[in-house]
Design brief:
Layout (H helix, E strand, L loop, with lengths): L2 H15 L21 E6 L1 H18 L6 E7 L3 H8 L6 E11 L5 E9 L9 E9 L3 H11 L5 E10 L11 E6 L4 E2 L15 E4 L11
Parallel strand pairs: 2-3, 2-5, 5-6, 6-7
Antiparallel strand pairs: 1-9, 3-4, 8-9
Helix pairs in contact: 2-3
The structure holds inosinic acid and magnesium ion (MG).
Amino acid sequence: MAKDALSKSNTRKARASAAEPLPAETRGDLPIMPMAGDLARVLVSEEEIRRRVRALGAQISRDYAEGGSLTIIAVINGALLFVADLLREITVPVQIDCMRVSSYRNDINPVQEPEIIDMLRLDLRGRHVLIIDDILDTGHTFERVTAEIRKLGPATLRFGVLLEKLGRREVPARPDYVGFSIPDEFVVGYGLDFAEHYRNLPCIGVLRADCQNPPEWA
Ligand code: IMP
Ligand code: MG
């Protein structure tokens, strides 16, 4: 598939179907887990995640149907759960690799320059590559990861995120696939963590302010 044709037709489609910002009120039911008590409220329920992941998988499958195959790069740890579920909704042949990036040092303020801790094993030359991250916040991770992958010579390169935080961008970043647009609050669950906790919550919720700096995690 021609690079231009892919980027023009599909970027447009992807933007049009990205979810609207979610209303701020509580959504969905709290999961039955003790750590769910640390959430101020649920922002995206398990069911909403499932539906949106299914829709994104269908969209990606359509977008890459002509391309032959796709290489997905998961930015871990945050994108682990999202990518695992998304992969099962994608019907075109897929290769997968992971890139470990660290943006946080045990609190809610990102370090200035995201650090690439572990790089890929696959050869990306001439491949259609889709990077998947958990959340787009300031855009520094997007910028850094995209620049690194571009150096490896993919035929096409796109970026998808489960969540896009509104009003936080410090560098321009326009993801091609967005699960949900959310307000500027610190969220955890479905792969997203605070100091490596909460990744296994099945929903996405706002972390209570008094749980954001427990002394025992310092
Ligand atoms: P950025 O470089 O500021 O765009 O941040 C992207 C990374 O910061 C994500 O991949 C997450 O790991 C992390 N991050 C940003 N906002 C949140 C949040 O609300 N909860 C958990 N992690 C977050
Ligand atoms: Mg991350």
